[in-house]
Amino acid sequence: MSDTLVVGKHLGRDFQRGVVALRDVNCRIASDARIAVVGPSGSGKTTLLHILGGLDKPTSGTVEWPGLGPFEELRPRHIGLVFQTPSLFPALTVAQNVGLPLVLAGDPASAGAAAAALLDLFGLGELRDKLPEELSGGQSQRIAMARALVMRPKLILADEPTGQLDSITAQFFFDTVMEQLEGTGIALVVATHDEAVAARMATRWTMDHGRLVSEWPRQDAA
């Protein structure tokens, strides 16, 4: 399956004090996938994204990245991450935060222009010289998505990227994201409570008490 980017088999994740975040989850992400991960708070959505992105290790089961290469090169080169909590570096300006993945990947010469272009696309160009402490939560979310896009990775994992946006801003923001991904082959997996976002994704994973209880349309996760 050459188009398979990530495969999770029988994933389980236990934390201290008997908290079970994931239970026997099987899933697959293909190139160009559009996946919404839905379910109530505490159902395991964030934990699943962290494991698929290589930020956390499962307690049981395995995760592999056949279409992304060695684990050491996953981030920021091949996986872009958007966290639910603030993740911008406080000492860097907005433009520097967005361009940081290119700097880390050894291409600092492209960072400034690429960051400026994405900030303009998202209507955030006037914020380029501000520090994260000067931003609203919604602005920080959009800037984090621009940072995830700047490397043109093969996969973007986004956790509640519209959670702090009003409906009109969220629609414009997500329209821009989808337009940027069109025809690129980049896969997008979004954990969300926003039904308007989930409805635009081709595939829906429904989580409940750590289990992937339904997947529509059904895919072969093995």
TrEMBL record:
Residues 6-221 form the ABC transporter domain. It comes from the Bacteria. GO terms for molecular function: ATP binding; ATP hydrolysis activity; transmembrane transporter activity. It holds the Pfam family ABC_tran. One of its GO terms (cellular component) is plasma membrane. InterPro entries: AAA+_ATPase (IPR003593), ABC_transporter-like_ATP-bd (IPR003439), ABC_transporter-like_CS (IPR017871), ABC_transpr_LolD-like (IPR015854), P-loop_NTPase (IPR027417). Keywords: ATP-binding, Nucleotide-binding. Transmembrane segments: none annotated. SMART domains: AAA. The keyword ATP-binding applies. The keyword Transferase does not apply. Gene3D superfamilies: P-loop containing nucleotide triphosphate hydrolases. Belongs to the ABC transporter superfamily. This is ABC transporter ATP-binding protein. It comes from Mesorhizobium atlanticum.
